[in-house]
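Good morning C.,

I know you're traveling, so I'll keep this short. The sequence:
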Amino acid sequence: MRNQEKDAINMAIKRQSILETGFRLFTSDSIEKVTMNNVADACGIGVATLYRYYKTKQALVMAISAWAWECYTETQGLLPDETDICHLPPGQWYEIFVDTFIDLFRQHKDILRFNYLFHLFVQHEKVDPVQMEPYNEMMKGIARRFHQIYVAGEKDGTFREGVTEETVFCTTLHLMLAVATHYAVDLPDSPEVRKTAENELLHLKKMLISEFVSPGRCNFSGRHEQKEPEETEKKDMKFIKTYMMAPKSNQHVTASMV
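The tokens, ready to paste straight into the viewer:
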């Protein structure tokens, strides 16, 4: 029994090493360019050993994606679990959810870059839905936690009447992630770019809260925010409404791009 426990511990350590190394390699170069041999060499193991853990490169990529997001959501408190939901009002939890994407840009650009490369890989390789299960289960876990916020917010009037859970969750997730990813992946890292990105993310946050949350139900402080011209606010609100009215297939494409 002791040898079995030791073997299980060693396997868990090796699996963790594979996930961390694969994430680093895929993020620093690109998922398509990095081979299983590259990952095995960087881990200091034979490629046959790597294939015992992950039968295909697709399986490895899916596992890394689920692992990276799970690590982030667990350590950063992305959304409340059943025991946390009562500690803060729903409006504050929604603001925390939106702030997550600003934190991703500030502190975790590697996750944004990997997520971008991940979706390119999925599209290019036409990944089998069965292989996508680890990633899909992780996303369902985030959606289940958001559901608690929405139910509580719907009950106490935090969310505006007539706004569905799917609309709030998908619009917030896709738009904030798209903007954060654009600045993290497409543009060089510089003080000017960081300042522009944070201002845009904070402005989008204000627009989302204004669109979905009833007045007085969210303690949005507008920190670091500069007053935007009224015309800009109208333009951004129109963009959000256009996204909300778009066919679900188009929203899926937007999500896949980020």
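Safe travels,
E.
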